[in-house]
Amino acid sequence: MSRKSVELFYDVVSPYSWFAFEVLCRYQTRWNISLKLRPFFLGGVMNESGNRPPAMVPNKGKYMFKDMHRLKKYFGVPLNIPSDPPKVMFEKGSLNAQRFLTAIDMSMPDKVEPVTRELWMRIWSRDEDITLPDSLAQAAQKAGVSDEDIVSLLASMKDEKIKGRLKQTTSDAMAIGAFGSPIIATEVNGEKEFVFGSDRFPILADMIGEPWEGPQPGVSSKL
């Protein structure tokens, strides 16, 4: 039986996307799937869809931070709330990080998973920067990318082909109906469908005909 294609559209500024990312990475060896990580720009999706970040709605913001404390245990992800969430999410943002991941995806796709994880560890676990070149370099180093490749990757972030790819991935997500992050897409009866968020895995499992065994299905974590 051929592997079912599953695409994860994500932005490292989104903590809920981290939960979804780790679950899918755990299940890529348990489900008969081919997982494609697709970094996109959440800011563009929010603008084009007319959505608002949950943290900008006072009651949603209060709920979100309490919810994340519960979910870090449930998903087995070492998430910690940054000292200044609005600055992290809305002022500093993630455009540079997403361009960096796009550059990695285009030149060394096997490093997308570990570098993405290191960026989430920086922003959503250790309250560290992900916008400056040195910050991106440190994340890549921890993920096993050579210094020579890091220099090349950082330089390529200014290339129009990198910017164009990120825009295209964001447009691809919009084309299937994205309004936030994470978006998990697959094909059902020949048509592309998606689920939104980190709490739809039982539904996703049903869509692709695989068993759902919980968020930590007895496999070793890479965290």
UniProtKB/TrEMBL annotation:
Class of enzymatic activity (EC top level): transferase
InterPro entries from the UniProt entry: DSBA-like_thioredoxin_dom (IPR001853), GST_Kappa/NadH (IPR051924), GSTK (IPR044088), HCCAis_GSTk (IPR014440), Thioredoxin-like_sf (IPR036249)
Active site: 14 (nucleophile)
Residues spanning the membrane: none
Catalysed reactions, as listed in the record: RX + glutathione = an S-substituted glutathione + a halide anion + H(+)
Pfam families (alphabetical): DSBA
Species of origin: Elysia crispata (lettuce slug)
Molecular function GO labels: glutathione peroxidase activity; glutathione transferase activity
Protein name: Glutathione S-transferase kappa
CDD domains: DsbA_GSTK (cd03021)
Enzyme Commission number(s) from the entry: 2.5.1.18
GO cellular component terms listed in the entry, alphabetical order: mitochondrion; peroxisome
Domain (DSBA-like thioredoxin): residue spans on this chain: 6-208
Family classification: Belongs to the GST superfamily. Kappa family.
Gene Ontology biological process terms, A to Z: glutathione metabolic process
